[in-house]
């Protein structure tokens, strides 16, 4: 399909062009978000702590490596199953172990916690968790955000669609919900390999480029350590594409089923953004039946997940309560445009995306765009067209994401980026792999730094959660003032609320606090506990909570959460630094 390149791009020029482009992008990002401070969001905090240093190192190494980039490099074997499959399985194992080592068996964001919360009640065969009568007056302090409005006066239900949590519940039944992400990563990488083999049947080097860019994506395997739905989007997007390229009735019907599942992972609008460019590609190629079928699938996605699912929840749980419903089509579209108006941050978010993926992914994917023969593309003969349109859409909707390792809203397009890079390599590069080897080495250095900084960032929150979870009190009230995103510590154990029942103090009234102090053993968790653990400082205050705390002190209801007592004499010596 792809003949040897007639206009090869020198690797030295490729490296230098990547370094220059990255320099300009980083300069603009720093000026806009740091020098002129267009809002200090969590993304900017993580950019300065993680991505900016990693990108500076990558930029310097890319420049230093440029004079040595051209050359044959190590010879790689044919990308057959006996090589690729064990490699993919190894990265799945790394992702599973990383949840326990890197993230210390802790899910830092509210998004992840809500997904695990839903998995816990699905594991019990429920569609929602009934709120115990004694806790109904405090239900919003216990579940502060990301709850479904349907039947919210009587049930706790995740605001997200159910498929991601259902997959976790399935693996929970099999032994460990944290195997869900790694398994999806394995499935996605396997599908990526099959697509690469289909596109490059005579270019083993291009297949290797595609796969090594995917395997070296720090964003892919670190996100697979978490309950985020984005690993599912990557996997199901790649499976969908592999089935469409397979063709035939079985291929397209199976792809339609996969698309329906993908739309139910957590928010239904993500798969249509990926699929729409391929429908355009089919229309340009005059493949009317295939295009019509996938248009029907898109309509089915809206009907099933934006209409039937909310209707089912209303019938099962009751009408919306506490907050307005947020699953309708008009509401979803309106919310998207509202966020584009006030939360569009392409510079910082795409900087994170570049930092967490292979340093050569974007330069090679750019070559893939230029590899298109535009007349052929307009006749639907160039798969680079839908791949590129999807990547532009995924990156263009660069909304503020909060937490995320890389830019998770573009997570489902990492596969298309890798395929575009393979297309660019096949068109413009001979089978000389040294540039790829150097890119992998640079990416490895960046990945090591990012993994270290991620561990440092997560550790204080994991320690705080363990400290709260070990409390013997009935209720732990979290006063989040003075700490960055401390409110996300309001959660249960393994997705199940229970003793200690953790609540956000700022969402309680004075009468509710009095009632809790009268009926239960109450402990406080505030800056006196979480600041020594290393939680980043956040300078904010709330006068109403000052009054609550003063009242609690006057009533003798301000006992702090205490670390658990050592179980053995050796633990006591370790905790005291051997000064006893």
TrEMBL record:
Q: Which keywords has UniProt assigned to this entry?
A: Membrane, Transmembrane, Transmembrane helix
Q: Carries keyword Cell division?
A: no
- Membrane is among the record's keywords: yes
Q: Which domain of life is it from?
A: Bacteria
Residue stretches spanning the membrane: 14-32, 52-69, 81-102, 155-172, 179-200, 206-226, 238-262, 268-284, 291-309, 353-371, 383-403, 409-426, 438-463
Q: What is this protein called?
A: MFS transporter
Lineage from the top down?
A: Bacteria, Pseudomonadati, Pseudomonadota, Alphaproteobacteria, Sphingomonadales
